[in-house]
Amino acid sequence: MAQKQVYEDETQISILSFQVGWEEFVIDLYDVKEIIQAGLVRKLPKSLDYIDGIYNYRGEIIHIINLKKRLELEQYILYSKNSSFEQNSVTSKKFIIILKVDNDLIGFYVDSILSIDHIDPTEIVGLSPIFQTSVAMEYIKGIINFKERPRIMLELSKLFSEVEKFKIQQDLSSLT
Q1: Which whole-number Å values give the CA distances from 36 to 10, 96, 100, in the listed order?
Q2: Is residue 154 part of a domain?
Q3: Residue 38 domain-assigned (yes or no)
Q4: Pairing between β-strand 51-57 and β-strand 60-66 as defined by DSSP bridges
Q5: Which domain holds residue 45?
Q6: N or C terminus of the chain with fewer C-beta within 10 Å?
Q7: Is residue 176 part of a domain?
Q8: Dihedral through CA 138, CA 142, CA 145, CA 146, nearest 10?
Q9: 105 phi and psi angles, rounded to 5 deg
Q10: CA dist., res. 135 & res. 139, Å (int)
Q11: Torsion of CA 44, 16, 163, 104, to 10 degrees
Q12: Number of domains the chain is built from
């Protein structure tokens, strides 16, 4: 498994757990630059459909990605008046996680920050055929079995194809 090779020299890794829609994800805390409250994001015309806009992060212009759109989670959200999952949490964008992905800063909208944990790398397991998720397998680094429920560890470097990375860079270049 690729994730064991990446972390084989580590005795513990720190992870950040967060929620987008009804899915719970984890990422390596090492990739996180900062977590901020969602602020003013400016729309970019003709950008990719999952890019909500750009944000001035400490003087640097970065793209803000809507993970619900990127991971295609919107189509799986059920709107029900009797549901415990309120519509407010579906459409609200409460936090932005600023990350370093392939040497570029980028922001991701998330609905809530759940926790920061330290785990043994052996707790990251491969995706089993019986594990059900609406997230495409190409974006999954592994699964971490927490006591309450398993969480998906995202492979951030695979969220964008080379063509999409080029388009994002072009968008930023056109602003300067």
Answers
A1: 28, 5, 15
A2: yes
A3: yes
A4: antiparallel
A5: 2-171
A6: C
A7: no
A8: -80
A9: -80, 140
A10: 7
A11: 70
A12: 1
Round to whole Å and give the CA distance between 70 and 72: 5
The contacts of residue 100 (CB under 8 Å, 6+ apart) are: 31, 33, 106
- Read off the CATH number of the domain in which 58 is found: 2.40.50.180
- 3-class secondary structure for the chain? CHHHHHHCCCCCEEEEEEEECCEEEEEEHHHEEEEEECCCCECCCCCCCCEEEEEEECCEEEEEEEHHHHCCCHHHCCCCCCCCCCHHHHHCCCEEEEEEECCEEEEEEECEEEEEEEECHHHEECCCCCCCCCCCHHHEEEEEECCCCEEEEECHHHCCCHHHHHHHHHHHHHHC
Q: Whose CA is closest to 113, among 18, 26, 25, 16?
A: 18
Q: What phi and psi values does residue 67 have, to the nearest 5 degrees? A: -65, -30
Chunked in runs of 10, what are the mean pLDDT values of the chain (176 residues)?
51 91 89 90 84 90 88 60 39 79 86 92 75 70 80 84 73 66
Would you state the pLDDT for residue 85?
41
